[in-house]
Fold:
Amino acid sequence: MADEIKITVTGDARTEAAVRRLGSDLPKAMLGAMRTVTLFLQAYIQRKKLTGDPLKVRSGRLRSSITGTARMIDRQIVGTVGTKTPYSRIHEFGGEIRPKKGRYLTVPLPAAKTSAGVVRGRARDFKDTFLFRSKAGNLIIMGKPTPGALEVEPLFILKEVVNIPKRSYLVSSVKENKDRIGQIFKKSLETLANKEAA
Structure:
């Protein structure tokens, strides 16, 4: 994600002393400290945000895709925590989803999902289906949820647009941990300085 949050870390006397001891090794040490911060945030997001609140685990794909990196760009140490999973942005910021092809989105109903909430397949993967219009005027794909099932159930509802609510897990994690991030960065820098001095 291109969005970024900047946090300024100001040091106390101990941190300033650590910085002086590091001398020319300071950039390398700051990169190491930033790596520690990004690893902390990665673990926090996976453990606190993607295990039930605000997002429940379904396939685990989003949770396992979260990565943290640190690098130097134009003499600045930059830490990045994020994911390249295609649906990550819509969860973070919310928004509308519209069909890319055709008129309708096929939104899965409980009978089309596993007990963990994972969709069993696309609407076209279900055999012997038919369209039904509900009393409310909604178009519903009806069919048997699994091969050999005896009863027909509603599998998918057809929608022209679906609104996904904002469920922040990245930005909110940084905001919740602003003070902690500064503390981790300083502590890591001091630890690295002490190792260099030893």
